[in-house]
Amino acid sequence: PVAKRAVAQLDKVPHPVGFVSPPLCPGKVRHFKI
Amino acid sequence: VPAAPVAPLGCDDPESEAAAQAAVNYINGHSHHGYKFTLNRIKNIRVIPQGPNSYIIFLEVDLLETTCHVLSPTPLENCTVRSFTEHAVEGDCDIKLQKLDGKLTVIATKCHSHADSSEDVAQLCPDCPLLASLNNTEVTTAVTAALSAHNSKTADAYLQLLEIGRAKIQYGPAHIVYVEFAVAATNCSAEAAKDNVEACQLLPDDQSNFGFCTATMVIRPKEDLKVDCQLYGHQVPTPDTPFLSRVFQPTT
Q: B39, B162, B202, B211: which has the fewest C-beta neighbours closer than 10 Å?
């Protein structure tokens, strides 16, 4: 049996108005940016 | 059997951070010059499936220079990051790792380092000294004078220069040269070296025989020289000895 992945179903859930998915990269600056 | 797809990793995911820390430890452990670097930012991460329980990780990271020389036994987490006004140095690294059955192995690293622009530092701190070339005449003169001054005063081992790590020059209002350099102890006492310095040999490679010096040479308005050298030394932790004094054993 083939089942859809849960993540695919989550993608179909509409985001609230104004919601912006956090970018995966780049990550946070720990000290300071040169 | 094609490798199973791997979920994309975010740059701040714990697994990404673990990979970056493994990479930073590898880079510092394999570096024989300059200072230890610490992670500042994971710029990008890509995961390529390889087989069951195995995948390749490509990392791009920004690192920042710390005040700990690579020969220092101080753990990286206790090393201070060079501040922006100290004329910070950044490292850009591309790293390839393999994760096999949950175990990370660094396969390859490629790093470049560069100092922040002098203009940026001067804009924020007009009177701050700026990084100078390590073969600048004023720098080499300051290092030679500082090491001679140390060796002429100490009753301990005669120290030889290993490398100049960093140098800054301030031209105004006073003309000052700041230098940092790594040293190694020889088999001669400083007193014995006065008679025959050529006979002095470096002791066998051992962390306890390495040390680090900082010196300040004022050229104007009034000539002055201050030097401070510390050998790293073997340290046995005891409950009544503060951590920092265990890490560095002062010789002056």
A: B202
